[in-house]
Amino acid sequence: RAKAMGKGCYAIFDEDMHTMAVQRLDIENELRKGIKHRDFVLYYQPIINLTDQSIIGFESLVRWNHPRKGLVGPDEFIPIAEETGLIVPLGEWVLFESCRQMNDWLQRFPSHQEMLIHVNVSGIQLKQAGFPDRVRTCLQTTGLPSRCLKLEITESMLMSLEDRAVTILDAIRKQHVQIGIDDFGTGYSSLSYLHRFPVDTLKIDRSFVLGLDKNNDNAKIVKAIISLAHALGLNVVAEGIETARHLTMLGSMRCEYGQGYHFSHPLPAHQVAGMLGRA
Ligand code: C2E
Ligand code: MG
Ligand code: MG
Ligand code: MG
């Protein structure tokens, strides 16, 4: 009997697997078309100086403007784009469009000369031969000064690339482009590796920030990450600041920058222009 049940379970499992595989293939094919037709848009979330609440820059976040589903968030397609290699052409577009857009804002709003654009880069993209050269070409083509670009790589991607990452990041930083480690605290960094990565910024994962006011351990962890960053000469951006209380706590911990719904959701480009025009 147990055996029969076991078999039954396998049959259901197989069917689910089949459905999932078909859905994945559909998404993959649609992604291909989407990239061809440029059905993607970038949203921009302000990054704030927590001391004076001024805007120091924006993080670009991609959305898929799907012909039937409407705007689809990155968590639903970035993993598939990474598995299929489609992240390479998609990421290339994201990098180019982010730099073009930031340069446009710098020209139009000259009182905001020191703004940065943070661009998320997948490890798959980063390890492509010639990636540092593509970054250079992108800056030349768009006219964006290299000091205005910061690339974000997740902690787990960095750790999986190990020594290779050091060489690639060195080549990027030679061009005065900055590097931030994204989702810091979730990637099981070996501290002995961390200090060898040539980076400028740690971004504290929002899971720690969201738990700040509820959970005393979270506050200790955030405090420790900020001290670690400062000891290594890095600056810190806290993600996921949703309340005034998060902001106050982070300020008392000497966290210099942050982003989150408390300040602004990610915005389409025209709304950013409105914001910069007023500020
Ligand atoms: P991320 O780089 O860590 O980006 C932060 C995510 O947190 C964004 O989600 C943002 O909308 C969300 N967020 C910002 N403030 C708050 C807040 O106060 N509370 C909460 N709960 N969430 C907040 P989004 O846009 O859905 O992006 C998810 C992830 O997708 C990003 O995480 C990044 O890893 C990836 N991603 C987005 N755009 C790109 C891209 O162009 N290339 C690559 N490779 N990955 C991307
Ligand atoms: Mg990011
Ligand atoms: Mg993050
Ligand atoms: Mg994330």
UniProtKB/TrEMBL annotation:
The chain holds residues 536 to 814 of 814 of the full protein. Residues 24-279 form the EAL domain. This is Diguanylate cyclase.
